[in-house]
Amino acid sequence: MTNEPQFRPVYKSLNKPLTIWGVERRLFFLAVIMGGATFNFFASLLSGVVMFAALWVFGRWATGTDPQVLRIVLNSSRFRAQYDPTRWQPWTVVIGRRRHGASQPDR
Fold first, then answer.
1. What are the C-alpha distances in Å from 23 to residues 13, 34, 35, 71?
2. Which residues 6+ apart lie within 8 Å of 54 measured at CB?
3. Spatial contact of 23 and 31, defined as CB atoms under 8 Å apart
4. Nearest Cα to 47, choosing from 28, 60, 34?
5. Separation between Cα atoms, residue 50 and residue 34, nearest integer Å
6. Is the model more confident about 103 or about 63?
7. Interatomic CA distance for residues 52 and 35, integer angstroms
8. Does the global pTM surpass 0.70?
9. Per-residue confidence band for 47, with pLDDT thresholds at 50, 70 and 90
10. Residues 55, 35: Cα–Cα separation, whole Å
């Protein structure tokens, strides 16, 4: 067995998020649906466009920050926390000193 590294090609398109107008596709469709719902609820085209634009800007920021932020937020409620800072208890550390002339065990 050799110690030489093996190189495998990884294509850029595998790691790029699927986007529409620069926004991750799920966030884009959420913005479209919420804009349409706002338009129907308030019966105002301006309110629907403003809602869509606000959510589009938020989606653009979220996609630029972390494309998987929607998946993380939606899955965060399903998994329990690994670390609970409210249950933290301090550790006690005991430092022992060696006496001069004490023999050390063979290792």
1. 16, 15, 15, 14
2. none
3. yes
4. 34
5. 10
6. 63
7. 5
8. no
9. very high
10. 8
